[in-house]
Known about the structure:
Blueprint: E1 18-22, H1 25-30, E2 39-44, H2 49-53, E3 60-64, E4 67-68, H3 72-80, E5 87-94, E6 97-104, E7 113-114, E8 125-132, E9 135-144, H4 149-152, E10 160-164, E11 167-168, H5 172-180, E12 185-191, E13 194-200
Antiparallel strand pairs: 1-2, 2-3, 3-4, 3-5, 5-6, 7-8, 8-9, 9-10, 10-11, 10-12, 12-13
Domain PDZ: 5-96, 124-186
Protein name: PDZ domain-containing protein
InterPro entries: PDZ, PDZ_6, PDZ_sf
Amino acid sequence: MADQLARYGEVRRGGIGVEFQDLTPELADAFGLPSTSGALIARVVPGAPAERAGLRSGDVVVQANGHPVSNADDLRKRIGLTPIGQTLKLSVVRDGRTRNVSVTVEDPVWLRQPGGAMHPDLDGALFQDVYENGESVAVEIVEVQKGSPAWEAGLRAGDVILAVNRTRVRSTAEMKSRIRRSRSAVLQLQRDGRLYVLRLE
């Protein structure tokens, strides 16, 4: 696990601030689309790049940078593989008409999870999923407030959480679920290429 994640602390996935879902035959028919290929925008985060670019809930993304979008997962991966700061060109179907929209991929601060919602000892830390090839593979601490419970527990920005109670975690959702299953938790984390163990009481 340590070898596989030796560089993950420097990997960040950008985002545009949308939630996608797959197209069902019924939805495709309702939108006047010839097939279920594409990704339906279910929600746009206020103030995120997608909203600023003019994307709306109900838009159907059919191409990304000239490549056909097969489903929601395909589009998530394409966004995840686009470096932060670069522009993603999307072809979107709205009201039966196709339009092109350019949106800049940004550091997805809206996805950061407060540690206090997981465990009191994690209060003051912000967590974010780490991605490799468009897939979530671990959890990184992106910020720790000095003097907070998380700081006093020994956590620092840049730490990568690999496992909770000896079980691999690949996302903040998995981490939260594992911690909530027991009163105490043991975190396995990586810092500067070394492995550490931290117990939460």
